[in-house]
Structures are given as structure tokens and as C-alpha cells.
Amino acid sequence: QVQLVESGGGLVQAGDSLRLSCVASGVLFSRYAMAWFRQAPGKEREFVAGISWTGTFYADSVKGRFTISRDNAKNTVYLQMNSLNNDDTAVYCCAANWDIGVSPRAYDYWGQGTQVTVSS
């Protein structure tokens, strides 16, 4: 049974940093593409960042501020978020699939999400 568990969310002020973590179990982690999505109230789920054997990928809105990385020995993917602003407020979810993609429909496995709230 595949399980993805996120952690690291919280309430921060604009300009602060957070690091999210997602621990995977039940999958051959090193072979999976991993991604972070977010969903703000009243908005659709959107791609934030992804990592696979082909490289790393970012939404334009987070390029230069967010960094995705993974530790295959720990079955964990991270999202380092710097210079946070109000627009980053959302529930952040990690997702796993055999291949990278920017559409939520491309991913078979999802975590429950962790809330990130940025106050000004």
C-alpha cells in the first residue's frame, strides 16, 4: 500500500522560509517521479515543483524561490520555500508517479497535504 505523508507546514510571515517534507512508503521510491502541488481556497490544484531522473521542474510563480530535492535513502522529497508571500498560502500535497507531469491527473498517489499560511 502506497502512502505519502507530508509535514513541515505552518503559519509564517511574508519573507520567511519553510521546508516541507514528504515521506513515501510502499513504493520503490528511487524510481518514482515526485512532485509538489498546492491548492488555495477557491482555486484549482496547481503544480509547484517536480523531480525525476530527467531533472527538476518548477512553476514560473516559484522559480528562484522554491527548491525541490529528494533523499532516496530516506524515501523523502523536500520542498524548500524561501521568500514566501501571501500568494503561497495553500494546502501543499506531494504526489508520486512513474513519470513527471504538471497535471494532477498524471499522478496516481497523493498525500493528505500540509497547510502553509503566509501572513503579511
Alpha carbon gap, first and last residue:
40 Å
Please compute the radius of gyration using only Cα atoms.
Answer: 13 Å
Give the overall form: globular
Tally of DSSP β-strands: 11
Structural class: mainly beta
Provide the low-confidence segments as ranges. Answer: none
The residue fraction in helices comes out at: under 10%
Give the DSSP E fraction (strand runs of 2 or more residues). over 45%
Describe the main β-sheet briefly: 7 strands, mixed
Looking at this protein, list some descriptive labels.
4-stranded antiparallel β-sheet; 120 residues; 7-stranded mixed β-sheet; globular; mainly beta
Give an overview of the whole structure.
This protein is mostly beta strands and 120 residues long. The termini are far apart. It has no helices and 11 strands. The mean pLDDT is 96. It is globular. Strands 2, 4, 5, 6, 9, 10 and 11 form a 7-stranded mixed beta sheet that branches. The chain has strands spanning 3-7, 10-13, 18-25, 33-39, 46-52, 55-58, 66-71, 76-81, 90-97, 109-110, 114-119. It is 0% helix and 52% strand. Strand 7 and strand 8 (76-81) form a beta hairpin.
Topology readout:
Blueprint: E1 3-7, E2 10-13, E3 18-25, E4 33-39, E5 46-52, E6 55-58, E7 66-71, E8 76-81, E9 90-97, E10 109-110, E11 114-119
Parallel strand pairs: 2-11
Antiparallel strand pairs: 1-3, 3-8, 4-5, 4-9, 5-6, 7-8, 9-10, 9-11
Provide a short characterization of the protein structure.
The chain is mostly beta strands and 120 residues long.
